[in-house]
Backbone:
């Protein structure tokens, strides 16, 4: 199979990800760390003979399935004597690079980096093997400068990174409003300022941006600084559902170690089940892991509204990924891709069946 390659703007994306402004972690992310707090059951054996499975995720609440699964020791429990090791990331391109190099085996990531990674490798680098979360993205603005959607014209709006999931979403929304923006430079009827989520609140406070289209908890951090939610992206989607976080795996690792992949998926399904059954405890667990990863927990005024805007789901919402790819094409950031084969939901559906849950669909984009 031959998938279409992205345009030069997306080839630029990997280089952009290494700039200090956009990526604060060195190399591929944080150093891989074992989950030393999770106890291995007596008599547990290694899965597929592996010493470890390396798992990547972002320090965002939209990756709370991974945060909770790690904090609760669920990944280690399912992996037995095979150590769960972790690396955290701030940008999708760096996580894709880590996956391609073997620095991680499995990762939680947004749809746009997954699409980019798949198409740039001609469909050979990764598979999406599960969903994880929906929602949790908002357009937050300075209410003194912007009081309606029409006021966005002529203003400076931040997105996390050129070509990332929120950048594509904002460019698509702006085009639907009739605004013309050069996708690479971000200049036009609206100025798009690509800014790392970690510094977006400071940029807002300084007045260098007028608003931002960002995921949680950055959106709620801006609200805590006096910002106003002008638009929740979920309102733009059918049934208010759209994929914000997927689980990906390298095709090489999936082929060689399906039992290990199945174990991680089982832990992910258990994490989402526990999140739904124990929302307050899960919120606290996610925040505890964020603190362990970053050294700082989220205050309640940020954590509570951020958490309530995200829904956790094993369903990858594959049809919305296809739509997001179309948005990237429309924005001029991607040539029309062949996404056939990007999904392999075989192991996920096996786990879901065993748990008595409904299976999920790949919208015709699966390997089978």
Residues:
């Amino acid at each position: 199979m031959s998938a279409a390659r992205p345009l030069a703007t997306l080839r630029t994306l990997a280089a952009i990800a290494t700039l200090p402004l956009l990526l604060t972690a060195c190399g591929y992310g944080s150093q891989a760390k074992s989950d030393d707090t999770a106890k291995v059951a007596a008599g547990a054996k290694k899965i597929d003979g592996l010493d470890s499975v390396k798992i990547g995720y972002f320090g965002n609440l939209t990756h709370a399935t991974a945060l909770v699964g790690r904090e609760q020791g669920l990944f280690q429990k399912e992996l037995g004597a095979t150590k769960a090791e972790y690396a955290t990331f701030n940008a999708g391109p760096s996580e894709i690079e880590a996956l391609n190099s073997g620095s991680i085996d499995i990762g939680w990531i947004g749809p746009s980096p997954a699409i980019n990674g798949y198409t740039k490798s001609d469909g050979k680098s990764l598979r999406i093997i599960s969903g994880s979360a929906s929602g949790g993205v908002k357009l937050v603005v300075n209410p003194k400068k912007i009081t309606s959607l029409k006021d966005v014209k002529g203003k400076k709006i931040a997105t996390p990174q050129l070509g990332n999931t929120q950048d594509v979403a904002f460019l698509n929304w702006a085009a639907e409003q009739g605004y013309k923006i050069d996708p690479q430079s971000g200049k036009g009827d609206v100025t798009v300022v690509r800014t790392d989520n970690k510094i977006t609140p400071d940029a807002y406070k300084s007045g260098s941006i007028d608003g931002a289209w960002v995921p949680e908890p950055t959106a709620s951090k801006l609200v805590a600084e006096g910002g106003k939610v002008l638009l929740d992206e979920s309102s733009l989607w059918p049934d208010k559902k759209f994929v914000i976080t997927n689980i990906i795996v390298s095709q090489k690792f999936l082929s060689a170690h399906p039992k290990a992949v199945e174990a991680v998926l089982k832990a992910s399904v258990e994490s989402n089940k526990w999140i739904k059954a124990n929302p307050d405890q899960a919120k606290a667990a996610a925040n505890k892991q964020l603190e362990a990863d970053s050294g700082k927990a989220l205050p309640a005024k940020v954590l509570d509204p951020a958490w309530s805007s995200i829904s956790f789901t094993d369903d990858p919402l594959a049809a919305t990924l296809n739509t997001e790819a179309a948005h990237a094409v429309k924005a001029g950031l991607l040539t029309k891709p062949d996404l056939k084969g990007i999904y392999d939901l075989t192991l996920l559906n096996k786990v879901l069946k065993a748990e008595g849950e409904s299976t999920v669909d790949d919208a015709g984009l699966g390997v089978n």
